[in-house]
Amino acid sequence: MDSFKVGNLMGIEWRFSEWIMHAGGLTPLNVLEYFSLSPFWDPTSNNAVLQMQTKFNALQHEKLQLEQMVGIEFALAYEKFPDYYVIVKRKRTSPTKS
Looking at the domain assignment, is residue 85 inside a domain? Predict the structure, then answer.
């Protein structure tokens, strides 16, 4: 079952103000982490797999690892710092194409 159903989520407005305050605001570096807490997050995405794999270690270059995977991923497509971000859900069909 696909966990991302547009029809079911169209009427949802989501915000986690406490997290934003604790993080000191949203930035391009933490906006995907914030998004991972939302009902729009797909726990089967490549981002979620990497998040679990790197949770307890200091593995760096997570973006490079994500680019080597195929499947569903989330990416920051547009930013207008400090308060406007567009995140896209896309299917990567090969490590060289997004």
Answer: yes
